[in-house]
Design brief:
There is one protein chain. By secondary structure, the chain is of the alpha/beta class. The protein has one domain: Rossmann fold (3-Layer(aba) Sandwich). It is 38% helix and 20% strand. The chain has 7 helices and 8 strands; from the N terminus they run E-E-E-H-E-H-H-E-H-E-H-E-H-E-H. Strand 3, helix 1 (41-52) and strand 4 (56-60) form a beta-alpha-beta unit.
Length: 229
């Protein structure tokens, strides 16, 4: 359903992105932010899923500045490799990868002619939260189990758009007490928790939990339908 395109960022860098277009006129756009495993088959499937719902979907390669062409699986070795790339991207001078996400938002708005939402998973959930707080051109954001979102530094940020946040109750990387603290600090954010583990949305991971993934997807689609109309 999708094709690879190039996004031109504010500093002139050309960043690859996977773009999936709906069958008819887009009813808006969704920027999809990867986990630490690159724009792999799962992320492409997620983008295709949003296109099937009528949205133009764009998934920028968030590792491109440190390692082009990353596409990992979900083994322990893959996780270690992906974490290394994530650490390298986080260490880039500001604005780092955020300008690549801004380029994806700008492209999505122009190509769809509609409002733009953003969704991200794992590390992509953290980048989604940061985008909602710092970037322009968004109308809604839906981070999934964003690692780091509930830390004091990130909780101190203030979103500029409506946010729907999904967390897992059995997430060993995001303790529930920090989720509760985040909820208390951000009553304006719609927070849902699920009886599942980190990564529950990904059907290629052992942590996949179909009922939670389905419920979170239904909520996210309703959220986008409300804010991207």
């Amino acid at each position: 359903m999708g094709t690879m395109i190039e996004l031109k960022t504010a500093d002139g860098t050309l960043v690859p992105a996977y773009e999936a277009r709906p069958a008819g006129t887009p009813k808006g756009a969704v920027v999809v932010i990867q986990e630490i495993f690159g724009v792999n088959s799962h992320i492409r499937n997620v983008a295709d899923g949003y296109a099937a719902e009528g949205y133009l979907a764009v998934a920028p390669a968030a590792f491109h500045r440190v390692r082009p062409g990353v596409e990992l699986g979900y083994s322990d070795a893959d996780m270690g490799e992906g974490f290394g790339y994530k650490t390298a991207v986080e260490a880039l001078p500001a604005p780092g990868v955020m300008q690549d996400i801004q380029a994806a938002i700008d492209h999505a708005a122009k190509a769809s002619g509609g409002k733009v939402g953003i969704v991200g998973y794992c590390w992509g959930g953290l980048l989604t939260w940061r985008a909602a707080c710092t970037l322009t051109g968004l109308s809604a954001a839906a981070p999934y189990y964003g690692g780091g979102v509930t830390t004091p530094e990130e909780t101190a940020r203030q979103s500029q758009v409506p946010v729907l946040a999904h967390f897992a109750e059995e997430d060993k990387w995001i303790p529930l007490d920090t989720v509760e603290a985040f909820k208390k600090a951000h009553p304006e954010v719609e927070v849902h928790t699920y009886a599942a583990h980190h990564g529950f949305n990904c059907d290629q991971r052992g942590a996949w939990h179909a009922p939670s993934a389905q419920l979170a997807r239904e909520r996210t689609l309703a959220f986008f339908a409300k804010h991207l109309a």
